[in-house]
Design goal:
alpha/beta, seven-stranded parallel sheet, 404 residues, seven-stranded mixed sheet, globular
Length: 404
């Protein structure tokens, strides 16, 4: 099948800082190509647009669709649906892998209502929605009803989790080289991890303990940089060493980050204070840690926690007060760490590799179709609207009551 893949940005380049969108697009493209589909990617580039696979506006995208005549269209970010025409003959798939309305709740709460209406209108152009988790799928059902999907006889949402290909186990020995923990990532207003980093650094106060080294990668999201920087919400980490001994790095090119995980790190951290966005979120960091054989320490409320516990691919915790004690136990049992490192790679190979994760999408593409829509009311009176009657109507009603 010929599939047109529409994205926000060009394909992932290992020597540049990677975004989650680019990583996800690469995973989906790899799974589709591996299943024998022909994938043609085009991306939005409003600044230049000179690349033959780039488009700048709705008219150019319509031209691409007309010329290529794809058998299916996969849109990698829901806002791009704004540029698609209604009533396409091809089935349209949208990747809704992140709970974007919950993210907006922390960025711009005043925009949540209008954005939900916009999302509902855009989803009415689709026939299949990809969600990252079962919980994310449930969050979307009322929105899909509002968009006109008839949920009685079809399932227009399939779960295609974030995926990764196993790289291999850590190359350094934590007993000889010292334990190194790695965390961080793009700075977001809904992700607060300071209490966890402080709990790790407090271990240095115990002279009898060789405290682990903490390395944090962080910085600004490339597509939101100017807005968040102007509002002072996104403080990038400056490379160096902080007063408490934490090593901080900027956002590194994808290949450099992978090299560090492979040669220098031993445990990945996906920890932050609880909030509603975190409960429904997935993390590309977690997948990167696991695919490099780093056992994961994560919050027990995260969607990935059950897999980590089931495969013994790391450890789950409830809060920052548990972290120091857990690390003391881990560093005292290096053989257990080795076993969990192997389990992390097994989890990726068996459950989280692109071919397995994308199986629901590949099965749907065996017989793609337009989604059934709810019937529309015709020739009937509009529903009653609750509100304050007009002044003449109120006077008329009052006169009637006086007569009675």
């Amino acid at each position: 099948m010929n599939i047109l893949l529409i994205t926000l940005e060009p394909p992932l380049e290992p020597d540049l800082v990677a975004t989650g969108n680019a990583v996800r697009t690469g995973q989906l493209g790899s799974a589709l190509s591996g299943a024998g589909h022909r994938v043609s990617q085009v991306w939005l580039d409003q600044r230049d647009g000179r690349h033959p696979q780039a488009f700048q506006n709705r008219d150019q995208l319509q031209s691409v669709i007309t010329q290529q005549q794809p058998e299916a269209i996969l849109v990698a970010y829901w806002e791009l649906l704004d540029l698609l025409p209604f009533e396409l003959t091809q089935p349209v798939i949208v990747d809704f892998v992140a709970p974007r309305p919950l993210e907006l709740l922390f960025e711009h709460p005043e925009r949540v209502g209008p954005e939900l209406l916009r999302l509902q209108g855009n989803l009415s152009k689709c026939d299949l929605v990809l969600a990252g988790t079962e919980a994310q799928r449930d969050l979307l059902r009322f929105t899909l009803l509002g968009a006109g999907f008839d949920l009685r006889g079809c399932e227009p949402i399939v779960v295609v989790p974030l995926a990764a290909e196993a790289v291999g186990g850590p190359e350094s020995d934590p007993v000889k080289d010292g334990w190194t923990l790695v965390g961080g990532g793009v700075s977001w207003p809904w992700r607060q991890s300071g209490e966890y980093w402080q709990a790790i650094q407090s271990m240095k106060d115990d002279p009898s303990l060789a405290a682990p080294r903490l390395v944090l990668f962080g910085g600004q999201y490339r597509w939101h940089e100017s807005v968040l920087e102007a509002e002072g919400r996104n403080k990038p980490l400056q490379p160096g060493t902080s007063d408490d001994g934490t090593a901080t790095e900027g956002l590194e090119p994808y290949s450099h980050f992978s090299h560090f995980l492979r040669t220098s790190a031993h445990i990945g951290l996906e920890v932050a204070n609880y909030n509603i966005e975190r409960k429904y979120s997935q993390s590309f960091r977690s997948l990167e840690f696991l695919r490099h054989g780093l056992p994961l320490i994560c919050n027990d409320y995260l969607p990935i926690a059950n897999l980590v516990k089931h495969y013994r691919a790391g450890w789950t915790i409830g809060g920052p007060e548990e972290l120091a004690g857990l690390l003391r136990e881990i560093t005292s049992k290096p053989d257990e760490w080795k076993a969990r490192s192997a389990n992390a790679l097994r989890l990726v190979k068996e459950v989280l590799n692109p071919d397995v994760a994308a199986r629901p999408l590949l099965d749907w593409l065996e017989l793609p179709s337009k989604a059934p829509q709810l019937p529309r009311m015709r020739g009937s009176n509009p529903p009653a609207a609750l509100g304050k009657p007009s002044l003449p109507e109120r006077i008329k009603r009052q006169a009637s009551l006086l007569r009675h």
